[in-house]
Amino acid sequence: MQSSAKIAGMTTKSRSQSATAHVSDSDELFLVAALAAVLSLLALAFFYRRGDLLLWGDAVAHLNIARRLFDSMRPGSDQLGPVWLPLPHLLIAPFVVNDQLWRTGLGGPLPSMAAYVLGVAGIFRLVRARASRAGAWLAAAIYALNPSLVYMQATAMTESIFLAALIWSVVYFDDFLRGLGDGTASAIPTALPAWRALERCGLCLAAAIFTRYDGWILAFVIGVGAVSAVMLHLAAGGPQAGGPHTPPAARPANGGTARGGAASATSSGRTERSRPRSRAT
């Protein structure tokens, strides 16, 4: 009894430590995102004062395509997809309804700036899951302070949107790989089931596919990697059906194999007791 109580106490302590670490990492991730947002706003103000938001012809084209969705001779979805993929223009469209935001170019950077913040946070989360806190901060700083990216996110260009989708695709694919095991072989234990991480990875890949053609290659590579990982995991003897990393649809009925086995054993015992004993001759 004492050993059981000791083991239960150790388990509770480890769970509380893991929860505390998770809260701390979430707060740190929020801090990284907040700093990236401040840098993004400062960059927008700097380039706007210099009149640099519309230097790229492609940025002007993205603004005009988004505007033509509702302000053209033939408004509607026909304006999407002739050269560029549609997601960036759909994201920009609500902000260029205002003439001032469209003419000055201020309507275009808003989705790119949000994607820039997500990208910085994604880099931090990805590296922190596999390396030290200092390494995660260094990686996020290198990404955030890239001069080309700092300028691109302040325009209507699509680079920061695609990079954010790419980064979070890799983040969730990494969660998927860690979720196939016990979820603790990293600096931050994953609380996300493998199948849920794969769903989120697919959503991010869809965003990448509809942003730039590079996303098509990315989706193929991650798809091959996911299938290979599952096959290797099953070949090595993966978790039993009904475990925390099994999709609900694939879990057995009766509350899992353990409960089903116990019920079967109980039923078998009752059957044996109900049989009449044969009399000795």
Radius of gyration: 27 Å
How much of the sequence is in beta strands?
Answer: under 5%
The count of helical stretches stands at 11
Oligomer: single chain
- Largest sheet report: none
- Category by helix and strand content: mainly alpha
**Percent helix among the residues?**
55-70%
Give average pLDDT, whole number.
81
| Distance N to C terminus | 48 Å
Q: What is the strand tally?
A: 0
Assign an overall shape: globular
N to C succession of SSEs = HHHHHHHHHHH
Provide the low-confidence segments as ranges: 1-21, 240-245, 255-274
Task: Report on this structure.
- The protein has 281 residues and is an all-alpha fold.
- It contains 11 helices and no strands.
- Helix 5 (109-128) runs antiparallel to helix 6 (133-144) and helix 5 (109-128) runs parallel beside helix 8.
- The longest helix has 48 residues, at 2-49.
- It is globular, with a radius of gyration of 27 Å.
- Mean pLDDT is 81; it is low at 1-21, 240-245 and 255-274.
Task: Give a quick summary of the entry.
With 281 residues, this protein is mainly α. The chain is built from 11 helices and no strands. The longest helix is centred in the first third of the chain and has 48 residues, at 2-49.
